[in-house]
Structures are given as C-alpha cells and as structure tokens.
Amino acid sequence: MQFNLSQATSKTADILVVDDTAENIRFLAAMLIQQGYQVRKALNGKMALTAAQAAPPNLILLDVNMPDLDGFEVCKQLKADEKTAMVPVIFLSALDEVTDKVKAFQVGAIDFITKPFQFEDVLVRIQTHLKIQELQSQLQIKNSQVQQALLDLKQMQAQLIRKEKMLGLEQLVAGVCHELNNPIGFIVGNLNPAHEHIERLLQLINLYQQEYPEPSPAVQTLLEETDLDFVAADLQNIIRSMRAGAKRVSSIVLALRIFSRLGESDIKAIDLHEGLDSTVLLLGHRLAGKAGMPAIEVKRVYNEIPLVTCYVGELNQVFLNLLNNAIDALEQKFGSPTASNQRLDQTPTIWIRTELSHAQTVTLRIQDNGIGIPESAKARLFEPFFTTKPVGQGTGLGLATSYQIVVQKHNGHLSYDSTPNEGTEFSMTIPITFAEKL
C-alpha cells in the first residue's frame, strides 16, 4: 500500500482540504499554498472520496459536519480502501465534545483540531504528521530491504549447504562405484567360466556313472547323501540367481554414475528420461513394500523429447527431491496408523510424465496420490528451511533447492497443484537450450 509521499521534503506534499464552507477552504488553501504545499479542494464527502481515490494525497484536512456524508463516514471509507488506507487524516471541526474526538480516532484519524483554530497550530501539526509519515515510509523501505537481505542470506545458506551435500554425495558415489566396479567385474567375468566348469564336472560324473555302474559302498553312500540329481538342477538355479544379482548391482552402479555424472562436465546435453530412470532405480528401496506400507507403483509416461542442455547433476538432484517428497506424501497417507481409514481402492502411485511443451521447452510432471499439501503451508513451500515434515525428518531445503536450480539457474518454471488427501503434482518446465542468467 503506497501513496504519493514526498521523499524529499514535506513542503512538496499534496494536501486535500475537505469542507462544505467555501470560505474555510479558500482560507486554508491560500495559507497552505503560501507555505509551498500543493492543495486540492472538495466541498463534500463524495467529492473527497473521488479525489482521494483518483490520486491519493499525502494528507487530508477533513471537516466533520457536511451534508450527505459526514467527515466520520468519509474517513471510515478512506481507511477501508487499500489505496487510501495509509493517507493521514486530520479533522477540523467546531465540535468540541470528548465523544466526537474519540469517534474521530476510532474511525482512523491521526489528529483532531477544534475550530476556531490558529493557522500556526494547523501548520505545525501538518508538518509533524507529514514528517512522521515520511519516516514511516522510509522505515517500510528499510524493512523491505532487510527482508530481502534475509531472504538472500537464507538462499545463499541453502546453496552452500546444497553444494556441500552434493560434494559429499559425489565423493561417496565415486568411492562406492570404484569399490564395487572391480569385485562386480570379477564376479560377472567368472560366472560363465564357472558355469562351464560345473557343466564339465557334471558330464564327468555322468560318464563315470555310465562306465562304472557298480560303485564302491563308500561312493554309493555319498551319492545317496548328496542327491546328485537335485544338486545338478540347483546349481543351474544358483548360477541364474548370481547372474541376476550381479546384473542388478551393475545397474545400480550405472545408475549412480548417471545420477552423479562422475567425470563429466557440469553442463551438457542429456536425455532426461535416463536421469529419471536412474533416480527411480536408486529409490527402489523406498518404493518397495514393507511392514505397514504397500509397494509404491511408478507409472512412466514418456513422450518423445530432445536432448536438454543443463546442469546435469543438479537437475538430477531436483528429480531426487521431487520423488522423495512424493514418496513421503504416500507414506504419510498409506503407511500411517490411520491408513486403514483411507479408500481401499487406491494403490500408492507416482506418475512421471514428460512432454515437449513448446518448441524451446520441455515439461516434466511428477504426480502422486498422497496426503497432499496443507493450505497453511502453500505460501511458504519454496522458502528455505521451511518444512511440513516432523522434526528430524526434513531440513526444508529440498523444494527451496529445486526452485533455485530450476528457476534461477535454468531460467525455467516450477509450480505445483495440490488437493489435501488427494495428492500433489509438481510441474517443471525448462528450456531445451541452456542460457545462463546474467
């Protein structure tokens, strides 16, 4: 709420004089103009309201006794209008009862001068209230600057924490990938030779059984205890399980490398679907069912989109934050003690959709049918360190960080739509070609 308050000197202020007596207006206007003020005149309440709304003055001198609308009603309507609510009002009236003065202050006046008055008294009060208003305006500006500085500080702190976490994550991923690569490579490389050796040994045993159908009692006893037919069949299953396990570990290592983009440049053209898939794979332990919480289904609707040039590691961090939040929302709804009261026809689900939203932008949507976002939290959702999660379960950096990465770093757009107890959808739009903000 701002009005035309002079920042230089109160003598340039615009004053609206409202009085149904023309002589009073002429006298006040002449004296104020002589003092260097700009003066507008209104002979009744309706004219005063129209003039104030058209161009809010710096101060209003208002008579009480006027036809149609008295000064009290005019002041009340001025204070009810956001455009004129902050304009200071001084009553000038022949009324001298205490109740009249009390009513004047109740409807929003800042001063009450009784007629007949000395112009010097009016002038001093005008100067005083204009100065107060000027100082209040300066204080509001300072407050705004402090609030902005505090927000900038929070964002900088969040960025430092995020960078520290990302550095730690990259170091951890690098170490894990290095430690796993060699043993997994060893296992995978030896599975085929091991399988061939086992097959040869089984063939040899079969051949011995054919050539020497009557084994010694000791050999016969061992064969019966071993159940050779079962061992031969089970060895095949063991080899298949080992192959599947090794393949799973290899895919997780690959997902880790894709997620962190180890050894790659910060900015490059990537396939967003590859990053999304790797993130979903890394979250497999949270998506799997467990005691009191059914498995979460992930439905991917990928449309054809071009490669997107971006900060790869940081964009993958956004995917991780949004998917983790979706899982948290689903666990609150379907894994809480009151989950039995939820509709039984629902399966906890996350939908991931991509599309070419424009010739130069792509859109990613992550939707869940979880607990939703409470109305009280929506205004502060992207604020650093604000979280709706219980103490110890959230830092309040996930969405703030995601907003900074998408909006501030990639010139994109991040928004959401949520209905309590029905679910939430986050929508992220980023340019296909990266152009860093200046």
From TrEMBL:
Coiled-coil region(s): 132-166
EC number: 2.7.13.3
InterPro entries (UniProt xref): CheY-like_superfamily (IPR011006), HATPase_C_sf (IPR036890), HATPase_dom (IPR003594), His_kinase_dom (IPR005467), HisK_dim/P_dom (IPR003661), HisK_dim/P_sf (IPR036097), Sig_transdc_His_kin-like_C (IPR004358), Sig_transdc_resp-reg_receiver (IPR001789)
Histidine kinase domain residues: 175-434
Keywords: Coiled coil, Kinase, Phosphoprotein, Transferase, Two-component regulatory system
Residues of the Response regulatory domain: 14-130
Gene3D superfamilies in UniProt: 1.10.287.130, 3.40.50.2300, Histidine kinase-like ATPase, C-terminal domain
4-aspartylphosphate modification, residue list: D63
GO molecular function, one term: kinase activity
Keyword Calcium applies: no
SMART domains for this protein: HATPase_c, REC
CDD domains reported for this sequence: HisKA (cd00082), REC_PA4781-like (cd19920)
Catalyses which reaction(s): ATP + protein L-histidine = ADP + protein N-phospho-L-histidine
Name of the protein this chain belongs to: histidine kinase
Organism: Stenomitos frigidus AS-A4
Lineage of origin: Bacteria, Bacillati, Cyanobacteriota, Cyanophyceae, Leptolyngbyales
